[in-house]
Write a structure and sequence with these properties.
single chain; 2 domains; 6-stranded antiparallel β-sheet; 31% strand; Rossmann-like_a/b/a_fold; UspA; Histidine_kinase_KdpD; Universal stress protein
């Protein structure tokens, strides 16, 4: 891809479903400007110590990068430095001109919206445009709302699987459960790894009756029309 405008886009994501929305926004801008795109996430722990929930999100972000010819995923793990220092380092190394950050409730990236950290980024990388994008705590589909994902487990129970929020001896799968908000029952979507592939299955009243894969973006309303 010819970078006609000498632009370079960096999307900074942290764990949670809103990362996909930020990446899609970055892809649109990068494609419009015919610019390279970098997707960055930062964690203080080494990659091999991350739990299943974090690994799921990382694998999804990698899929987005692989699907876009101009995109590259960057993982900075085992980091003790402030996130702003890491962002600035990557921005200089990749000659980034625009950075996209998400203002997500109850996430580490909330720090980015505070004046002192904004000032730190502006001071460290004054040549970069900052885009602070407000995103919802919830994700939605055409009919209702899903809560943010929480760690959960599937326990074999006869011909079906029972959802549990604590690890038991007979746990078969560990993953993320996205619960519908307008119900007192455990209805929603369970996302997990099976045979080295990511699967999303429907949960009704805490039970999974079949491993029929459903599209996460369609089910949760994360398609391009949401932008």
């Amino acid at each position: 891809m010819d970078n006609l405008n000498n632009e370079c886009i960096l999307v900074c994501v942290y764990y949670g479903p809103n990362g996909e929305r930020l990446i899609k926004r970055g892809c649109k801008i990068a494609n419009m400007l015919q610019a390279p795109l970098y997707i960055l996430t930062i964690d203080s722990k080494p990659f091999d110590e991350l739990d299943a929930e974090k690994v799921f999100y990382i694998e999804k972000w990698k899929e987005y990068a692989n699907a876009n010819a101009s995109a590259q995923f960057i993982m900075k793990d085992n980091e003790s430095r402030p996130v702003t220092k890491v962002i600035a380092e990557v921005a200089r190394e990749k000659q980034v001109t625009q950075i996209i950050l998400g203002q997500t409730a109850h996430s580490r990236w909330e720090q980015i919206t505070k004046g002192s950290i904004i000032n730190s980024l502006v001071r460290d990388i004054p040549f970069v445009d900052l885009h602070i994008i407000s995103v919802s705590r919830y994700i939605r589909d055409g009919e209702g709302l899903y809560r943010d994902g929480v760690r959960a487990y599937l326990i074999k129970d006869g011909e079906q699987y029972r959802l549990s929020f604590s690890h038991e001896k007979n746990t078969e799968y560990e993953g993320i459960f996205f619960k519908e908000t307008d119900t007192d029952f455990d209805n929603g979507i369970f996302r997990f790894m099976k045979d080295a592939e990511t699967m999303q299955v429907l949960v009704h009243d805490g039970i999974v009756t079949e491993f029929k894969n459903v599209d996460m973006n369609t089910a949760m309303g994360l398609d391009d029309s949401d932008e």
